[in-house]
Batch of 2 targets.
Target 1
Amino acid sequence: MVGDVDTVRGWVQDASRVTVLTGAGVSTPSGIPDFRGPNGLWTKDPSAAAMFDIDRYRADPDLRRRAWLNRRDHPAWTAAPNPAHEAFVALETSGRLRALLTQNIDGLHQAAGSSPELVVELHGTLFEAACLDCGDRVPMRHMLDRVEAGEDDPACSACGGISRSATIAFGQALDRAVLDTAIEAAADCEVFVAAGTSLQVNPAAGLCRVAQQAGARLVIANGSMTPYDTVADAVLRDDLTEVLPAVVRGL
Ligand SMILES: [Zn+2]
């Protein structure tokens, strides 16, 4: 099913609570590569996926050194938000945004001007580091300063344990409180918009079902097919930097 932007705009206009779920496709126009797409990190370098495997990360100091260099060189440090991010700021300004759930770790929603208290980072954030042993969290900047100063695998300063970005890796469950907040927001909206996510990864993808079961209209805006297209009320295939601003135009 392919939806029509004007119809979706009407639904959003009539709604008082819109919950949004965003994925990598919202940030790729800002130069943040996705993982599995044609230019994805893991498509180009399958070995990079190992850095997201917690057991291999623990076991392999060499892998950790490469991971720290990747974090230091991550495009998020210099990326700027794009019109897709800005569309959600407009939605918030109109008073309709219930919550902005994101699978992205790049901080671009906050950089665009979305209120941090409305942004729910399902997969964590690159802007903090967390110790795998004691859980201590520090700003990523502190760790990267140590990398710049010559430490190639900076240990947790609280316990000496192994540290990594405060992001969800393979084999790690989502933070329960974060997931509960997301489920609550999905169940408490009139329109649920899933943008730039291929909806392949649970439990994030399952939020679409939570929203629909609670009576919300489901809108999918994504460049390629998703498993939820057949049950969605509208599917928008156009470029997100054009279609999302069009959805919120005139709010
Ligand atoms: Zn520690």
Target 2
Amino acid sequence: MIIAIAALIAVGAIVFILTVRAKDLPEAEPVSPFQHLDERKAAIYENLRDLQFEYRLGKLSDHDYQETKKDLQRELAGVMGEVDRLKLQLSPNGTAPPRVRQAVPEPQPIDPLSCPHCGTKFAQPLKFCGECGKPMKVQA
Ligand SMILES: [Zn+2]
């Protein structure tokens, strides 16, 4: 009996330690504030897909389909609005970044006549910069 109680206490202690540890551990990845919105968006899209599927199968009347679709689209618009509002809150200058992702700017072509370190331009290609003394060609 004593052994059983001791075992119980030991198990309890282990569970306690594990629980506390799990709580103390920082989250592995910071959760994006957009994550729950993305999840909601995904769920709505899935519902729309299901709806279309059922409509095509003839399980839904035209009216039901249109109504449900309208509801889902309204919900989606709400989520999108929330995403925009959140972006507005998070952006430092207070303007919402464009929804379309900007193209990554092309890397500048390397000018053999200007120093990659200090930017000084020369009339002829040089091995070393006459201004800062560093090699003119960026090592690949
Ligand atoms: Zn230089």
